Amino acid sequence: MPGLSLTFHSAGGEAGSGYQGMFIVSLPFAVLRGGYWAIIAMVGIAHICCYTGKILVHCLYEPDPQTGEPVRVRDSYVAIAKVCFGKRVGARVVSIAQIIELLMTCILYVVVCGDLMAGSFPDGALDTRSWMMLCGIFLLPLAFLKSLHHVSMLSFWCTMAHLLINAIILGYCLLEIGDWGWSKVKWRMDFENFPISLGVIVFSYTSQIFLPTLEGNMEDRSKFNWMLDWSHIAAAAFKALFGYICFLTFQNDTQQVITNNLHSPSFKGLVNFCLVIKAVLSYPLPFFAACELLERAFFRGKPKTFFPVVWELDGELKVWGLAWRLTVILGTIMMAIFIPHFSILMGFIGSFTGTMLSFIWPCYFHLKLKGHLLDQKERAYNYFIIFLGVLFGVVGIYDSGTALIHAFEIGLPF
């Protein structure tokens, strides 16, 4: 696909703040449910995701038979899966998991926009679904973007919005330091509800989908591990500090989205509006990634696929290709509007795809491809992460499934 590989320049910062950072406003609520264990989880999961990112990229390389130097023989997550699961099964399983993860992320951004705007104007004429449709109008022009340079620019402004929002919230909390509830943070956790918050923490670190192409597009690939280390150290430190300080400020009144704790309606509206802008700017990255995967699967031309290629020979999108991309955007908007209890459903499916993509599969691939080179300690650590991934996945699926059943018993949210 001309000019459309999954690259994002300055990706270490932009991936963290763009794709993942949107949900940092939910981390104080995780501290409410999990206490110090939630803070420990923010640091521990950062370490695990950093490790699985490194070993996933390690699986792209094989030693040269003559020199013994590592040579990059694979270029994507799917390419690794083809070797480990087989060409037909591997490509399909991983591609489906990636597409589900990316499209549900896009849909969730639309849901977040509607919820934030409805929360800012609770007595307004527009309800949540109407706000989703209104915010969705600003997503339609993204179908015209064919260059990832433009996506990178949007990610840059997303980073700026992210920093602004965090500075505003932390500044507000620091002004309230005299009323901080130091004794409110407990060592006990809410076992009934904390697994959902744990899922938010896991999701806030997952970027494995992008790492193989990210590493392949770095000017100096030898600095990949360094970049991954420091980006995860910075993310873990900031997220733990952010969740802790915000909880100390609002204590047991901490809301699921921390901006809802802001007392001034106008101030809350301003911060929520900034979050909506950030959500809109966060949308392009998973949208482009999902489109690339879908186009590789369905639009490569005969005999590879049933549908023709969506690109002209000069690199321009065909008219019907543009219509296809608009359909993807409209589909995410309509799913956000009409699927009842979508956020719980996303937690249900995400508990499977998220843990598979970020915990289980990277370790399984590493053991299968590099197991003969690993010592006993490294193999044991890989098995431990697989165990954690299975545990988080099962608990998350059970917890979200129970909440989904309960929600359907109550009825539709509109």
Automatic annotation (TrEMBL):
<feature type="transmembrane region" description="Helical">
    <location>
        <begin position="89"/>
        <end position="111"/>
    </location>
</feature>
<keyword id="KW-0532">Neurotransmitter transport</keyword>
<keyword id="KW-1133">Transmembrane helix</keyword>
<feature type="transmembrane region" description="Helical">
    <location>
        <begin position="194"/>
        <end position="214"/>
    </location>
</feature>
<dbReference type="GO" id="GO:0030659">
    <property type="term" value="C:cytoplasmic vesicle membrane"/>
</dbReference>
<comment type="similarity">
    <text>Belongs to the amino acid/polyamine transporter 2 family.</text>
</comment>
<feature type="domain" description="Amino acid transporter transmembrane">
    <location>
        <begin position="19"/>
        <end position="398"/>
    </location>
</feature>
<dbReference type="GO" id="GO:0098793">
    <property type="term" value="C:presynapse"/>
</dbReference>
<feature type="transmembrane region" description="Helical">
    <location>
        <begin position="36"/>
        <end position="57"/>
    </location>
</feature>
<feature type="transmembrane region" description="Helical">
    <location>
        <begin position="322"/>
        <end position="339"/>
    </location>
</feature>
<dbReference type="GO" id="GO:0051939">
    <property type="term" value="P:gamma-aminobutyric acid import"/>
</dbReference>
<keyword id="KW-0472">Membrane</keyword>
<keyword id="KW-0968">Cytoplasmic vesicle</keyword>
<feature type="transmembrane region" description="Helical">
    <location>
        <begin position="160"/>
        <end position="182"/>
    </location>
</feature>
<dbReference type="GO" id="GO:0060077">
    <property type="term" value="C:inhibitory synapse"/>
</dbReference>
<keyword id="KW-0770">Synapse</keyword>
<feature type="transmembrane region" description="Helical">
    <location>
        <begin position="379"/>
        <end position="398"/>
    </location>
</feature>
<dbReference type="Pfam" id="PF01490">
    <property type="entry name" value="Aa_trans"/>
</dbReference>
<dbReference type="GO" id="GO:0015187">
    <property type="term" value="F:glycine transmembrane transporter activity"/>
</dbReference>
<dbReference type="InterPro" id="IPR013057">
    <property type="entry name" value="AA_transpt_TM"/>
</dbReference>
<feature type="transmembrane region" description="Helical">
    <location>
        <begin position="270"/>
        <end position="294"/>
    </location>
</feature>
<protein>
    <recommendedName>
        <fullName>Vesicular inhibitory amino acid transporter</fullName>
    </recommendedName>
</protein>
<keyword id="KW-0813">Transport</keyword>
<feature type="transmembrane region" description="Helical">
    <location>
        <begin position="226"/>
        <end position="250"/>
    </location>
</feature>
<keyword id="KW-0812">Transmembrane</keyword>
<comment type="function">
    <text>Antiporter that exchanges vesicular protons for cytosolic 4-aminobutanoate or to a lesser extend glycine, thus allowing their secretion from nerve terminals. The transport is equally dependent on the chemical and electrical components of the proton gradient. May also transport beta-alanine. Acidification of GABAergic synaptic vesicles is a prerequisite for 4-aminobutanoate uptake.</text>
</comment>
<dbReference type="GO" id="GO:0006836">
    <property type="term" value="P:neurotransmitter transport"/>
</dbReference>
<dbReference type="GO" id="GO:0140800">
    <property type="term" value="F:gamma-aminobutyric acid:proton antiporter activity"/>
</dbReference>
<keyword id="KW-0966">Cell projection</keyword>
